[in-house]
Amino acid sequence: MDNLDTKARDLLAKAINSAHGRAAKIIINEGHLRQTAIALAKGTETSEHNAPKCESVLVLMGEIAIGDAIVGEGEFFVPDADRRTVTANEHSVYLLTTVV
């Protein structure tokens, strides 16, 4: 069994050392379910993008802004906007769950 905390810390280290300030790894890809761990270095913002039709976010470390919503460590969030950016207010890792 994989340890999600260890994966999150490793991914965050990659993001911090990346020229783009981000790193991602698919954790689960089974049938229609996909879970992706995404790490963002403090201050990194994703480009505006279309949201998946069905998704949830669980912040594992740090704090992110999804559009106007602030989501902190241990908080679960279900976004409702079609287009958005994600900004790391702190070094952060979040688990994005989608149904594809």
From TrEMBL:
Domain of life: Bacteria
Gene3D superfamilies (alphabetical): Jelly Rolls
Protein's UniProt name: Cupin
